[in-house]
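Give me the fold.
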Amino acid sequence: MRFCKKILSVYLCCDDKARVTCMITVFNISVNVQMTTLFFTFWINLCGIFLHPLYVSVVNMDVNASDKHIVMSVKIFTDDLETVLHNKYGIEGWIGTPNEHGDGRRLVREYVNERFSITVNRNEKLALSTDSIAIVEDATWFYMKGISSQPIRFVEIDNRLLTDFFSKQTNLVIIGTGGEEKGYKLDRKKHKIELSL
């Protein structure tokens, strides 16, 4: 406010050329204030987007109907799995860190098998085995497979991974069969897919 009074007093005491210079100065200050406000508004909104938690898992599945097997990879953010370990099992520490808990991998496999299932031909629940677990950057990858006792004609997938901990959890499932791929978005309310092959 004091600055504005000074500019006004300079403006009233000056000739036309000085008044024009004064008006240009006021205009530049106004534009700078507006641009700074716009910049900070944009920055705060952008930070809000990236700091807002994103809860997502991705399952890539390949169904070989004639060979009676399904292979898949499951990608889950490691910090989300740490939340599961802490809240469900009461343990700290995660795979691939110096403070890895001895039962961590077993408990996470147990959790994944509890919250993710595949039923084939409407009557056979596949026993899914975990071939390996890998940590890549901020995600944990599970490589799994299941073998059916009969040729696969119908698949039902129930994916409830992390929906018990995160209400906004999204589980993406990409299914490849016979050279074609289809993608599905699942969540807490819609967690099942039925697919005829």
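Strands lie at 56-64, 69-77, 116-120, 124-125, 129-136, 139-147, 154-159, 170-177, 180-186, 192-196.
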